Amino acid sequence: MKNLFRFLAALSLAAVAFAQRDIGVVDVTADTSTIPLAVRSSSPELQNLALTAFNVHGRFRLVASGAAYTVTFAPAGPTQVSVAVTKGSAGAAVLSETVAGTSLRHALLKAADLAVTKMSGLRGFFAGKLTFVGETTGKTEIYTSDLFFGNVLRWTSDGKQLIGPHWSPDGTRIVFTSYRTSFPDIYVLDLQSRQRNVLASFKGTNSGGRFSPDGSRVAMVLSGEGNPEIYVGTAQGRQIRRLTNDQAVEASPVWSPDGSRLAFVSDAAGGPQLYVMSAHGGAMTRLKTDISRYCAEPDWSKGDPNKIVFTAGVNKGYQTAVFDFTTNSARIVSHAPTDSIEPAWLGDGRHVVVTFRAANTRSLWVLDTESGKATRLSPASFGPASNASYLAP
Amino acid sequence: MKNLTKLLGLSLAFSALLFTACAKKPIRPDPGATAMGPASNNSVDPTQVAVEPAAPGTNLEARNLPPGVTEDENTIRGLLQPVNFAFDRSAVDAKERPKIEAAVKYLKDNPDKRMLLEGHCDWRGTAEYNLGLGDRRATAVRRYLESLGIDSKRLETLSKGSTDAKQGGTAADWEKDRRTDFVVLKK
Question: How many angstroms away from the CA of B62 is the closest CA of chain A?
Answer without folding.
Answer: 5
